[in-house]
Structure formats: structure tokens, C-alpha cells
Amino acid sequence: GVAGLRNLGNTCFMNSVIQCISGTVPLARFFFTGSYRRHINRDNPQGTGGEIVEAFARLIRVIWEGQYNVISPVTFKDAICRRISHFGGNDQQDAQEFLAFLLDGIHEDINFLDARPRPDLEMDDEAFERLKDTTAAEIAWERYMTRHSSIIVSMMQGQLKSELQCGKCSKRSTTYSPFMFLSLPIPKKRGSCSIYACLSEFTAEETLKGENAWHCPQCKKARSSTKKLTISRLPDVLIIHLKRFSFQGPFRDKLETMVDFPTKGLELQKYLMPSLQSTLATEKYDLYAAVNHFGGLNGGHYTACVKRVFDKKWHNFDDSRVSVCEENTVRV
Ligand SMILES: [Zn+2]
């Protein structure tokens, strides 16, 4: 179904995010078919006792049943506000922040916590550091999965490898952390740039010095060091967040740089950790949903473009207004 969502007072950030998740078919199907019910973990203290996942599933069902052209997501909004009150005010909020909150809320409501001990995953840092990186990444992921297991994690989370190296003694420390978003910097202040330039900037080696210097465990003091990020695991559904809003002390700024990206076949091979780059399976991503922000920092307006699976047509969702749009107008 395709339905617009009524604006309940500056809720375009919420509506745009809902439309993108509703267009994420495997996830929407999980809610629409009711299979999420078997996964609800009402005892998870990190969750909402099922309140958020149930409210969201009801909304997805109403959208997908296709009986209405416009829906007022009042019950869903109320459920969200009971958890985080600032999303309930009438102020404009950040769509990415809301998406992070929503996916995390859904995840915790259906998080299967496996309490069984996993001695096979235990080892000291030195031994971990000596592992082949593909093995280390796998172990780190397995450790994470013992505490975080849901369709959100298995479908939408990836993993980043972060390597720190002391500039003095060359001591290395490698960590593998899960991510829900690839939050990419925009390396140009104006004009346009390619999303690949953003990815290169994100994975470029960075020097940590001065206040940011790394406390080297071998030198036992803060040292000028290098830091490098690469992708050690890619999810089936990848969310890219372009960091348009910058914060410098009390000042906020929005970068209006146009970021060019392919709507089909985004290639991430180059940004994987080197041992994965040679693997045969080339990961390519097609765009099917995007949230756009128009206007300035205070206020502004969010809309979403989502490609419908049935007829492969792009739709522009501007709160309650829905229109078919061309693929080449889907701009971020
Ligand atoms: Zn050192």
C-alpha cells in the first residue's frame, strides 16, 4: 500500500522515517505478517515491554492494508512520546536521530538475549590482536550477538574495524564495533561531490594528537597515533547518513553540498578491510529509500522518496501528499 501520513505538528521527520521503513520490504513483512510477535521479549529491561514494536507493527499493517490514502499516526506517536518526550513536542527533530531511536527501540523489544556462556569467545587482548582480522571480526560479531540478536541486527547492522597505532612504538590496537549507520562526512563545503569522496574521507587515515592523542598501553602515555577505519562487515540493508549538520561549539551549520550517488550498484569493495577486498562476493547496493531535508537548521522540512517493490515506481512522500516521481529526482 501507499499512504500519506498526516503531519501532527512538525512530525515530517517521523513521517519520512516511517515511509522508508515501510518501504524496507523484508522488515515491513516481518511486521505485517505478525511474525514479530513470536520475538517480543517483554522482560528485556532495555526494551519497552513490546510497546514500541507493537505500535509500529500496527501502523505498518494499516499502511500495507491500503484501505486509506492518508493515515494519522497518532497512536504510534503517543507510544514514542511516552519513551522520549522531546519527539512529542512541536519542534522539528532530526530524522536520523529518530531513525536510530526507533530501530533501537524495535530491536530491544525483540532482542533475544542468549545467557549461555561462550567460553570459545573468551581470550585476552594480546591473543585477540594476533588473530587474522577476518577471524577477529567474526569473534567480535559473535560476542555482540550474544547480547544483541534481532532482525534489526541481522539485517541492518554492519561492523567497522578501527585500527590504532602508536607513532612512537608502533603498538597496535584493533577493535571491531557494530554500526547501524555509515555516518559519512561531506568533504566539500559547497558545490557537489560524489558519495565515493565521502567514503574515502571516512576511511582515510587520521592522526590523533594533542588532546585526542591515544593513550598507548605499551608506552603507558598519550602518544601521537594514527587511526584508520575500514568496513569489516556489510549488512543486507545499509543505511547511509550524510553528516550535513555540523556542530562547532554553540554553532550549527548545514552543508548544502550536493552529494552524487548511483541509484543502482553502489560499490563498497574499496572501503572494506583489505583481507575482504579480494573476496569474490562483490557487495553492491541499490537505493530504494532516501530521506531529504530542505531548508535551514531551525525548522526546515523532511520528505522521503521510496521505490515501491510492486511496480518499481519511485514515490515522493511529503507528509500526507504522495506523488510518483522520477528516479533522477531522488537527490540527497
Ligand atoms: Zn607506544
From TrEMBL:
EC number: 3.4.19.12
Entry-linked PROSITE patterns: USP_1, USP_3
Residue intervals of the USP domain: 3-332
One MF annotation (Gene Ontology) recorded for this entry: cysteine-type deubiquitinase activity
The keyword Hydrolase is annotated on this UniProt entry: yes
A GO biological-process term: protein deubiquitination
Stored Pfam families: UCH
Top EC category: hydrolase
Annotated InterPro entries: Papain-like_cys_pep_sf, Peptidase_C19_UCH, Ub_carboxyl-term_hydrolase, USP, USP_CS
Catalytic activity: Thiol-dependent hydrolysis of ester, thioester, amide, peptide and isopeptide bonds formed by the C-terminal Gly of ubiquitin (a 76-residue protein attached to proteins as an intracellular targeting signal)
Superkingdom assignment: Eukaryota
Entry keywords, A to Z: Hydrolase, Protease, Thiol protease, Ubl conjugation pathway
CDD domains on file: Peptidase_C19R (cd02674)
Membership in a protein family: Belongs to the peptidase C19 family.
Cited PANTHER family: UBIQUITIN CARBOXYL-TERMINAL HYDROLASE (PTHR21646), UBIQUITIN CARBOXYL-TERMINAL HYDROLASE 4-RELATED (PTHR21646:SF95)
Name used for this protein in its record: ubiquitinyl hydrolase 1
Organism encoding this protein: Thamnocephalis sphaerospora
